[in-house]
C-alpha cells in the first residue's frame, strides 16, 4: 500500500511539538510492516536541510490568486530517516527558518497544499491513502474531491489525524480566492461559523479521522473549540489510536545522549549514576528526589500552575526534593519562574528553551515527571519518561489518562490527579514522595513501567488496519 503522510512538522527536519515525533516515526514503522510510506513536508532553512544531500525531483508553478508561485520538490537522497522524505520549497513562502509565527501563515499552508497536489498530478503519483496531520493540511481532502484540477484523486482515500483540535486554521473567506479553483456549490464543506475552517473541512471531507488517543476522541465530542457537534455528527468515521514512541531513539540501553546507559535490570544503579552526573552539572543535590517538568510554558500544558506548585512544595518543610524545569513559552510564566529561582537557588533550576540532548539527560536522571495538563491529546513526555524509569505524575486527561495507571489501582505505576489545580498537583507529588520512600517501592514501579510496550509497532498496525478498511 502506498501511503503519503502530509505534515508541516517532522523530526528531525523541524520540531515544535509531538506532531514532529509522530510523523518522524510512524512512517518508518509502517515500512517495517511492508508498506510504502512517504512523508511530504515544507522545506525549511534549518540545519537538517543544510546538512543533507537533497535532490530536486520535480519543479512546477501555479497561480495563487494573482501571484505565480514556483516550487521545487526535493528528496532526501539516502532515506536516512527510514522512509522517503520529500520537501516542497517555494521562494518567499516555504523557505524560512521557523515552522510557525509568520503573519502570512494561511498563504504558506495554502501554497504547500496546492504545490503538493500539483506535483502529484503532473508527476503521475497516485497513492492509496493520504494521511493529513492537523489543520495545516486540512484542505487537502476537500481539494482532492472538489478542486477542478485535481478530481483524478477523487478515489484516493484520505485520513486526517487530529493531534490538537484546539487549533483549526481559521481564515476569512477573502482567502478563498487563493485556493485552487473548486466547485463553488461545495463551499459549505469549507465553512464553519462564517469562516474557512480547514480542520472542520477535513473532518467533513476525509474518509476517516483519527485522534492520538482513545480518550481524546471522546473528549472532542464534548470540548473541541466549537467543533463538538461536528465531531459527534461524524463519529462513525472517528478512531482513537494512541501514539507510540520510537523505542530505537528513546531507549536508555542504547541512548548516545545520556552519560550512562542502563536497562530494566540495572535501572537502580543506572538512574543513580545519571542523576549524580546531571545534578553535579546543574547544581542540585543528588541525594534528594528529583522532580521535572519538560514542555511548553502554555496554559493547555498547565504550565501556569508551576510557580504555585513549586511554592507550595517548598513551603512544606517535610518535602525534601529538587526540581528541574526545561521549557519555554509564555513570558509571564517565565518571569514567575525566574523570580522563584532567586528564592530557591539550591533546590530549583530552570533551563529556558529546549535542548534535545538535555531532555534525554533529564529523563535518565529524574525520579518523577509532572504533567498538569488542561489539554493533552496523547502526551509523549510521560511515555518517554516511563521508558527511562521516571515515574509520571499526571492529570487525568486525554492520553495521560489512557497511558498512566495510578498506583492505587491493580498493576498501577504512576500518580494521577483529577483537576488542573495547583493543590491537586501538589497533593499528587507529596503522595508520590511518600510512596517512593517506602522500601523497594520505587524500584518495583520503575521496572513495571519500563517493561510496558508503548512502541509504534502496535499503533502502526492499527493505522494500516484502518487504511485497509477504507
Approximately how much helix is present in the residues? Answer: 25-40%
Oligomer state equals single chain
Q: How is the largest sheet built, in terms of strand order? A: 3-4-5-2-1-6-7-10-11
Rg, nearest Å: 23 Å
CATH top level class name of the largest domain: Alpha Beta
Gross geometry:
elongated
Q: Approximately what portion of the residues adopt beta-strand conformation?
A: 15-25%
CATH topology of the largest domain: Rossmann fold
Report the sheet with the most strands, covering strand number, pairing sense and barrel closure: 9 strands, mixed
The low-pLDDT segments are none
Q: What's the β-strand tally?
A: 17
How far is it from the N-terminal to the C-terminal residue, by CA? 12 Å
Determine the structural class based on helices, strands and strand pairing.
Answer: alpha/beta
- The average pLDDT is 96
What is the H level of CATH, i.e. the homologous superfamily of the largest domain?
Glycogen Phosphorylase B
In DSSP terms (H or I, runs of 4 or more residues), the helix count works out at 16
The assigned CATH architecture of the largest domain is: 3-Layer(aba) Sandwich
The domain tally reads 2
GO biological process, one term: glycogen biosynthetic process
Enzyme class: transferase
Catalytic activity: [(1->4)-alpha-D-glucosyl](n) + ADP-alpha-D-glucose = [(1->4)-alpha-D-glucosyl](n+1) + ADP + H(+)
EC number: 2.4.1.21
Amino acid at each position: 500500500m502506498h501511503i503519503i503522510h502530509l505534515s508541516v512538522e517532522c523530526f528531525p527536519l523541524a520540531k515544535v511539538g509531538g506532531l514532529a515525533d509522530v510523523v518522524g516515526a510512524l512512517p518508518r514503522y509502517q515500512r517495517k510492516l511492508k508498506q510504502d510510506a512517504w512523508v511530504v513536508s515544507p522545506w525549511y532553512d534549518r540545519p537538517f536541510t543544510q546538512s543533507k544531500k537533497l535532490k530536486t525531483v520535480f519543479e512546477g508553478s501555479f497561480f495563487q490568486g494573482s501571484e505565480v508561485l514556483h516550487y521545487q520538490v526535493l528528496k532526501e537522497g539516502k532515506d536516512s530517516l527510514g522512509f522517503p522524505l520529500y520537501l516542497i520549497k517555494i521562494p518567499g513562502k516555504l523557505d524560512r527558518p521557523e515552522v510557525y509565527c509568520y503573519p502570512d501563515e494561511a498563504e504558506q499552508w495554502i501554497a504547500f497544499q496546492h504545490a503538493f497536489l500539483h506535483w502529484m498530478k503532473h508527476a503521475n503519483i497516485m497513492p492509496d491513502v493520504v494521511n493529513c496531520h492537523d489543520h495545516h493540511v486540512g484542505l487537502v481532502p476537500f481539494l482532492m474531491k472538489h478542486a477542478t484540477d485535481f478530481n483524478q484523486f477523487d478515489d484516493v482515500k484520505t485520513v486526517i489525524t487530529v493531534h490538537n483540535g484546539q487549533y483549526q486554521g481559521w481564515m476569512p473567506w477573502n482567502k478563498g480566492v487563493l485556493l485552487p479553483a473548486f466547485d463553488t456549490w461545495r463551499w459549505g464543506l469549507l465553512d464553519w461559523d462564517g469562516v474557512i475552517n480547514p480542520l472542520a473541512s477535513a473532518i467533513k471531507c476525509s474518509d476517516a479521522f483519527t485522534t492520538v488517543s482513545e480518550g481524546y476522541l471522546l473528549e472532542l465530542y464534548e470540548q473541541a473549540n466549537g467543533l463538538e457537534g461536528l465531531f459527534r455528527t461524524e463519529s462513525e468515521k472517528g478512531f482513537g489510536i494512541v501514539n507510540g514512541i520510537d523505542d530505537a531513539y528513546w531507549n536508555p540501553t542504547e541512548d548516545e545522549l545520556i552519560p550512562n546507559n542502563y536497562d530494566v535490570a540495572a535501572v537502580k544503579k543506572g538512574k543513580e549514576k545519571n542523576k549524580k552526573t546531571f545534578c553535579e552539572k546543574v547544581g542540585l543535590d543528588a541525594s534528594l528526589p528529583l522532580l521535572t517538568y519538560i514542555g511548553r510554558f502554555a496554559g493547555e500544558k498547565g504550565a501556569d500552575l508551576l510557580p504555585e506548585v513549586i511554592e507550595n512544595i517548598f513551603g512544606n518543610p517535610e518535602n525534601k526534593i529538587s526540581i528541574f524545569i526545561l521549557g519555554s513559552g509564555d513570558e509571564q510564566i517565565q518571569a514567575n519562574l525566574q523570580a522563584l529561582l532567586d528564592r530557591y537557588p539550591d533546590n530549583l533550576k530552570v533551563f529556558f528553551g529546549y535542548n534535545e540532548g538535555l531532555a534525554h539527560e533529564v529523563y535518565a536522571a529524574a525520579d518523577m515527571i509532572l504533567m498538569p495538563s488542561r489539554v493533552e491529546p496523547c502526551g509523549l513526555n510521560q511515555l518517554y519518561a516511563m521508558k527511562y524509569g521516571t515515574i509520571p505524575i499526571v492529570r487525568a486527561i486525554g492520553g495521560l489518562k489512557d497511558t498512566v495507571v495510578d498506583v492505587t489501582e491493580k498493576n498501577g505505576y504512576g500518580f494521577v490527579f483529577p483537576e488542573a489545580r495547583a493543590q491537586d498537583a501538589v497533593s499528587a507529588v507529596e503522595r508520590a514522595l511518600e510512596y517512593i520512600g517506602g522500601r523497594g517501592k520505587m524500584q518495583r514501579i520503575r521496572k513495571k513501567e519500563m517493561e510496558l510496550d508503548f512502541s509504534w509497532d502496535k499503533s502502526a498496525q492499527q493505522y494500516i488496519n484502518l487504511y485497509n478498511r477504507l
